[in-house]
Amino acid sequence: RGGESSRLGPSIDAEMDEDGVDIPAGEGVPVVFGEIELGDGTAEGVAAGNIHTGGGEEEERFELSAASAATRERQEELLREFEQRRRQRSVAVTTDDSQVRKQLRALGEPITLFGEGPGDRRDRLRKKLAELDAQDGGELALPEEALVVEEQEVQKELFYTEGSANLMRARTAIASFSLPRAKARIERAKRRRADPEVDEVAELDAAAAATADAAPDKSTVVTDIIAGVSTACVAMPQSCAYALLAGTGVKCAVMAAAAASIPCAILGSSRYLQVGCLSLGALLTRGALVNLGIPLGSEVYVMGAATLAFYAGVTRVACGLARLGNIMTSLPVSILQGFVWAATWMVFFSQVPAMVGATASGPLAGHFATAAAWLAAHPAIWHPGTFALAAATFVIMLNGGKIHKMFPSALVCCVLGCVLAASGVDVGACVGAIHVDLGSLFPPAALQIGPEIAKALVVPGVALGVITYLEGAAVCRFWAEQDGEEWSSDKELVAQGVANICSAAVGGMTVAGVISRSSFGILSGAKTKLSHFVTGCCLIAFTVLGGGALLEVLPKAVLGALVSCGVLPLLGPTPKMKPLFDNIKAQPYEVKRDCILACATAAFTFTARPTLDIGLYRGIGLALLFKLFEKTRDLDKKENEEFEKAQNA
Questions:
Q1: How far is 118 from 414, CA to CA, in rounded Å?
Q2: What's the mean per-residue pLDDT of the chain?
Q3: How far apart are CA 442 and CA 435, in angstroms?
Q4: Beta bridge partners of 22
Q5: CB under 8 Å to 445, separation ≥6 — which residues?
Q6: What is the Cα–Cα distance from 17 to 14, expressed in whole angstroms?
Q7: How many C-beta atoms lie closer than 10 Å to residue 444's C-beta?
Q8: In this structure, what DSSP letter does residue 164 have?
Q9: Does the N-terminal peptide bond of residue 332 adopt cis geometry, omega within 30 degrees of 0?
């Protein structure tokens, strides 16, 4: 710049900036970058318009363009947003939703908005507090009720929250719906990986057609007939095996199987359920009759079995007509699992003598479990041929399904045993032939028994009708959840009640829905109740046309092994018992309670005298005690809460 030396030259008091320019110290005329002092020569240039100068009374300013102004506004908005976020992050907000609601109410804000969750509500409170902080210049002043509360101490130990019954039913329904479909989807994926040429659309159409609930056509009728005949081939040896367990003789079980299938096919509601003799019913029948001192296999013993079937049938018909089906199936699962588990082991122990061809002796022979233990400790008295045939039956039954899912393992075992026995091989005792005289069926055996025995069997018969029904109900419920089939518990009660009355009329034993036979029928391709009808017709034809003569060479070892193989999957601990082996002390109260109920019911059943059903009654009594304890505890808790509220008030 030009001008006087006092303004341009170096000065003692001058300072230099970072560019090396002298800055005068003290008061004086400020140095302005680009300023030109007006001299005589420059004044003429300014007057001529050749030199432009700034300043003056009206300082010249250049306006920003529209684009530049918009950019500047966006930058300022971003800066304000960043500042707002910074303020929000610096605000401490409680995670307690009830406290969040209180603070919003104190600030005059809605405590909740439509579709707003706890996290969204907390963010809204944080934003509001940050806005108040900005308005107050950083000093946040809130009403006393809206002060931020301290965070509660987080519980770090493992704990469980009790779920509702509706949640349990919902999760069960979801699992029942999704798991089978997931399994089918994985199988389709494996087939496509093995064969990329698989037509997925055609495969899905075939699966949909297979599960469609349409009127039966010609192919469905043929499939049901084949499934019914196949199921009859399995039902006959199974019935003989359960007769051996019940001690009634084979004829009693064969007549029951022949008489029960057709009524259930006509009156039943489930197209999957197959009805016949079952292990639990046979064991309960044996316990009820032996308790009265009736000799096994005697004529009175068979009459007593028919009388029990009659009482069970009347009980089910009455419960069905009274619409008590849902109540009967509401027995606590833990009690039922404990009872069935213990009864299953009793069934297995009861077949040990038939599988080794020997019987226990001494004081231990009075109980199935102790008798089986005594026989296991004395292998020298086993019959070699009987034990070998039983072992071969186990091998065939456990591996037959690996050959094909419809492989008739039970029928193959029976044919093998009959061939060996007919060939003269010593395989132990055989069942013996049965002959049916239709004229001897009237009057029914249930009406020929003495009045004293008839009265004594009323309570066991009613219990037998209720307990054995639960297995069939489990089959109906399982398949209803699988494919959405509608079934009526009351209708099934009436159908099975009529089937038991028909069984009693021909001298048969108690019948109910059988899981193993129903599953085999489904695998055989059964689609409608026609397959049950065909099964009943085949069993009646076998009985009436002299098929019982073939049982002359059927070894008892095969029947004992068939019953034992049927209960093998149920011998392990039930789901309610498993917490006993998995740190039960750390489990919540409900899990401990169910585990105790299951284990206690199993122990009651093992030690039940004189019949197994007493163990079930004791388990129910223990469950009632637990219920009473829980009610008392809840009342005490409620009274304590009310007392604390009164004190605080």
A1: 67
A2: 78
A3: 16
A4: 16
A5: 302, 303, 306, 307, 504, 507
A6: 10
A7: 17
A8: P
A9: no
